[in-house]
Design a protein that fits this description.
- The complex is a heterodimer of chains A (about 425) and B (about 300).
- In chain A, strand 2 and strand 3 form a beta hairpin.
- Chain A is elongated, with a radius of gyration of 33 Å.
- Chain A folds into three domains: about 160 residues, Beta Polymerase, domain 2 (2-Layer Sandwich), CATH 3.30.460; about 150 residues, 3-Layer(aba) Sandwich (Rossmann fold), CATH 3.40.50; about 110 residues, no CATH class.
- Chain A is of the alpha/beta class.
- Chain A is built from 16 helices and ten strands.
- Chain B has two domains: about 120 residues, no CATH class; about 180 residues, no CATH class.
- Chain B is globular, with a radius of gyration of 20 Å.
- Chain B has a two-stranded antiparallel ribbon with strand order 1-2.
- Classes of the chains: A alpha/beta (about 425), B mainly alpha (about 300).
Chain lengths: ~425, ~300
Amino acid sequence: MNLHTLGLNHDSAPVEVREKIAFSPSSVPIALSSFAQSFPSSEIVILSTCNRVEIYATSPDDSLDKETLLDFFSAFHGLPKEEFANHMYHHQGINAVRHLFFVASSLNSGVLGETQIISQVKEAYMTATTAETTGSILNQLFQRSLNVAKDVHTKTAIGKGNISVSTVAVDLAIKIFKDFSEKTLFIIGAGEMCELVLKHLVERGAKTAIVANRNYDKAKSLAEEYDGKAINYEKLDEYLPQADIIISSTASPRHVIHTEHVKNAIKARRGNPMLLIDIAFPRDIDPEIAKIDNVYLYDINDLNKVANGNAEERKKDISKCVTIIDKEVAKYMAWTEELKIGPAISQLRNHFHEIGEQELERLRPKLGELAHEEWEHIVYSMQRTLNKILHKPAKVGKEKAKNGGGFQYVETIKHLFGIHHKKDDSKK
Amino acid sequence: MASMFSPIQYVFIAAIVLYLLDSIWEVGSIFNPNRFSKRLADYFILTGLAIHCAFLITLSSQSGTLPISTLFESSTFYLSLIVLLSVILKFLYRLQSLTPFVMPIVTGFSIAAVTLVKNDLALTADLKTFWLFAHIIPIFLGYASFTVSFIFSIMYLTMERQLKKKSFGPLFESLPSLENLDALMWKTITMGFPLLTIGLISGTVWAKTTNILGLDWYLDPKVLLGSLTWLIYAAILHLRLGASFHGTRVAVVTIAGFVIVILTFIGPFLMGHKHGYEKSSATLEQEIIIPDEAGMIKVES
């Protein structure tokens, strides 16, 4: 098959090279149409994200190969090939199909199992269809790749369990509290990580936030952003009983929250559970607090452990994903062969009918006077005979295509009946 | 052994087989959701429950009263209510993780009911009275609610342990949040408590008016244990509403309450006491029955 993919990713190339080769969202349509001008009968999709830049292209003839695609990159970006060629990988035919399925299923991603790539692949495909640079081959390929990605994500654990500290913290909160709309979040310190957890919880419906920071202005600006309340850092203990979820990440060298405070708070809360998340190092919250009933304390190590554990779980399912992908690759290849069988069968049919017509022409003068109807009978009989002969090979061909033996079958038929495919000949 | 079962009991055994399959599938689906499909588990439990109900209806139509004429019957009646309540809660609150806890217990109890409970204790009182329904149905529904709340407290403690120990397995994934479990525990207790209260009141009125348990009916072990159950759950309600009594502690006391429920349910039988039941073939324990002999149906109102 004449499908090519040429590109580079986070593994094969440093970020400096990726930057030079990348297509901005606005330049993708331009690149697509300029490619379509150079190779009019070809199909092309460009996938350009911060982690990878790839071209998927196919043409009915042999006008495309690695060199022409490298030339295209070089011409479009105005870069000499030497600057990037060494960082590029090139796949062809079945390997190109497999590569795309791997990419879409996020097996090729920096973060295994991330789902963003699915929408990026979809986006790339949509851009190409808008630019009208896709045809039946790439349409099928990309639609299937998206289905495979979906399948892989639902049937395996590749995307299960959160693998970042902030989302793991949210996962724990979900297992303690019913819904966040009536919960109060208490943010101590205004670091980036605190804000990230806060953001995730607000996305989940949390409405009330209290922020305390040594720097009151910082606290105020974070609180304002999330419709919360900034409080004086010294009054921290007073607000503890209100807090359902406490996220702490100060630069303080000593503990900020002490056992006594939480004991009092839980009493005032009449046993309603509290979740404390300590993302600071050194720790902000006295670890002894974990022993208090209805209080759940997790520090950065705990969160990391969960995140890494989930990442390990994802890795375990890679082989399962590969099995699904390989099955779908085989299905796609069978489809492309089926695509070839159609033209081959019609070629065969034309070939036979040509012979039939020649013979009829030769026969006509020899028969002398003949009623029009009688001649019609003879022509009809000839056509029927040919169609009956052709019925079986056509049927078998379709079956072969489905089971993956289509290509060989087409070749055999061509040899057997001396049908010449001009483009195939020129290749060899 | 098998020949000891009456034909109707085989219907119940069919239900047990389905409950057993369901238990395997429910628990299996937590650890290996791909192999044990939840859909299939749903079919098992619903078919099992349907057969179970058909069994009870057949019993009822034969005896013309509630299926509580023998200890075996009342056990299966009680079990059916637990399954029914769990199924309702499961679909009402989309609780995937309740039945994996309920069904192994129900299956175990069902097997025990079939194999251990000798079917020779039969209710001797006139069972077609209004009072029977007014007494038995609320009590049984109450017991079923308490049983489910017991299961929620087991789930709560399981979850609590995992959160404290920071060990998050597949069970952690499938269980609802602590607050959810706490709410469900509370909901089932507050549902069971009024039912038990109604059942106890109607039972008292019944015993007083018909003298079915004799004159000193209040010394009947079942009456005493029933009152103890009531007190325990009243205490839980009081503590949770009044004092700072949440989550873990409620769960622990709920478990204690359930132990008393089970004791009330089968304890008097094990001690050979009747509470309206007569050992139909018994001759051995005459002395226990003697005090009540005189006043079986003394006053008819």
